[in-house]
Amino acid sequence: MFKLQELIRRDMDKLAMNITTEQGKTLKDAHGDVFRGLEVVEHACGMASLQMGEFVSNVSNGIDTYSIREPLGVCAGICPFNFPAMIPLWMFPMAVTCGNTFILKPSEKDPGASMILAELAMEAGLPSGVLNIVHGSNDTVNNICDHGDIKAISFVGSNTAGMHIYARAAAKGKRVQSNMGAKNHAIVMPDASINATLNALVAAGFGAAGQRCMALSTVVFVGDSKPWLEGLVERANSLKVNAGSEPDADLGPVISRQAKDRICRLIQTGVASGATLVLDGRNVVVPGYENGNFVGPTILSNVNNNMECYEVDICNLYAILSDRRKSLVLFCFACRYGNGASIFTTSGVAARKFQNDIEAGQVGINVPIPVPLPFFSFTGAKASFAGDLNFYGKAGMQFYTQIKTVTQQWKDLPSQGVSLAMPTSQKS
């Protein structure tokens, strides 16, 4: 793992260019994709201490008990298109340093980064057969779920696929950690810092063309939303939509024509349901890339939580809800997803109430995308996660290992004959 992180740093530009070419995100964002995965590789370098067991001597008369962690055997990972480097690096470095072999299925839309990472793992000295790459779509996924030798599956992707994998694999007795869709909310209090908050909202809403599970796609303004909305539109309008390899690009294309058509349809359903289209990015044209799958920043206001554009996971769109009461309003509770939520405020009281009350796995206080560093865990909640052990951190180590408890006695005891009573720590 130490050697692998060195090689990933060496080939950072190669990985980023591959991601931009296949996935479309800007080069700067692609570098971030690789770097966030690299952090997990570096975390895996400390696995020796992470998976240390516990020991208690003389728990009973002359008896010691200790626990150790052992690998599961063969594990597998099924990856989405939106982070072609980061998500594989969430998975296989943790798994193999726990002693498992790993089968990685990258997205069929952009498998190149996984192939490069596998080559780097081989160059770093990972033994042959420890990391294996398989390609395909539904049939490959089902084979992974059904194969009797695979003990655990990690998944990141949509809710439809995630719940299918969770149900099918769990029915076969496998462990599953399934990170799925999201509808992340930002609550903006009247006392929030205007410039810092608007900059954060634009970056978190439209970065990576909105194609990330921690994007802020819904903002609730407590109080008068008009001045906030004007500033949000102004900043969103200033973003440059271009091919990801172009140096001036702020937003690249979405992953496919089907994705673009879906986004445009959902925008139209919002308008048809009574939302106000404040900023329309559907007809953006990029010179030289006229056939690209571009969707510019789009903002809908007067959205309610019964509209389809609010209920589903959608890229590159801000849904604006507002409330004129001077109280903390949590539209978030109505949402079935629970990946993340943020509040922007200068009030410690409001922040503490939000932190305690909100049903979300990751909470940001004046932080727009509160994705934790690898020594914590990625803690999605509600419909955004299925399973009981999250990605990376201590939970990730526990997911890829099983605990064994050993009780030993090294004392000559006088023969007391055969006793069929339950053994206890009490002296007879």
UniProtKB/TrEMBL annotation:
It comes from the Eukaryota. GO terms for biological process: L-valine catabolic process; thymine catabolic process. GO terms for molecular function: methylmalonate-semialdehyde dehydrogenase (acylating, NAD) activity. The keyword Oxidoreductase applies. Gene3D superfamilies: Aldehyde Dehydrogenase, Chain A, domain 1, Aldehyde Dehydrogenase, Chain A, domain 2. It is an enzyme of class 1 (oxidoreductase). Keywords: NAD, Oxidoreductase. One of its GO terms (cellular component) is mitochondrion. This is methylmalonate-semialdehyde dehydrogenase (CoA acylating).
